[in-house]
Amino acid sequence: MTPGMGLFAAALFGAVIGSFLNVVIYRVPRGQSLVTPPSRCPSCGYRLKWYDNVPIAGWLLLGGRCRTCRAPISMQYPLVELVTALLFMLVVWLTPAGPLLASRLLLVCILIALFGIDLEHQILPNAITLPGIVAGLLLSVIAPPGVRDAAIGVLLGGGVLYGIAGAYYLWRREEGLGMGDVKMLAMIGAFLGWKAVLVTLVLSSFSGALIGVALIAAQRGGMKLALPFGTFLAMGALAAMLVGEPLVAWYAGFFEF
Ligand SMILES: [Zn+2]
């Protein structure tokens, strides 16, 4: 198989997995089963045929509408499939075949699911974060960052955010960060190790603050923003996974003079 064919296969596989992640994003927060019943139109109950379910193409061929009742189908569906396909391609391109590749692809899936669910429902379900911590720790036995770094990552990731959440509560008497964020960063630590926890925290706080300020400026008011932090954690963790090491090396370069 040529490298080009490998990347194409990765994209196809990613699109199919993305289709499943759409089901996860829709059903897990609603407490529904992932296996049954088969996908239906939420408006008219039309049961989707296999050809409606073909990733990206199915949505495009239907023109973004249900085949029978013409109710609009959310853009989220093709977008999640496309993003998963692109990220799978990128990860396969950057990672040699082996346990690390499996671990990274699994983390990509979990992060996309948590991103979508947090954006829509402002929750990060335990049903995903807790098994995620276990999976990350188990994979660290056979893949980088190794058991020691992964265990420290869980403690640091959970500990830092738990501390920040507690301090914020004492200061404002309201919940700024949820326990879902705490468990999510602990899970990121389990997969990527403690150094990546720090990179993730810096990147997600920085981008969160930046986008928050931009939104406040656009609204010209001090409106209270409830941007879910989990979405920034997901993006920060992806960046830490893909470019974390060069980023830290570049940053450290500033202190060499
Ligand atoms: Zn319909």
Give the ligands present: zinc ion
- Helical content class: 55-70%
Q: Tell me the Rg in angstroms.
A: 20 Å
- The ordered H/E elements are HHHHHHHHH
Q: Number of helical segments?
A: 9
Q: Provide the residue-averaged pLDDT.
A: 91
Which sheet architecture does the biggest sheet show? none
Structural class label: mainly alpha
Point out poorly predicted stretches: none
Total strand segments: 0
Dominant shape: globular
Strand content bin: under 5%
Tell me the layout of helices and strands:
Elements: H1 3-27, H2 57-61, H3 76-94, H4 99-121, H5 126-139, H6 147-172, H7 179-192, H8 194-219, H9 229-253
Helix pairs in contact: 1-3, 1-4, 3-4, 4-5, 4-9, 5-6, 5-7, 6-7, 6-8, 7-8, 7-9, 8-9
Bound molecules: zinc ion.
Zinc ion binds next to loops.
Q: Would you give an account of this structure?
A:
By secondary structure, the protein is an all-alpha fold. Helices cover 69% and strands 0% of the residues. The radius of gyration is 20 Å and the shape is globular. Residues 41, 43-44, 46, 66, 68-69, 71 line the site of zinc ion (ZN). Residues 41, 43-44, 46, 66, 68-69, 71 line the site of zinc ion.
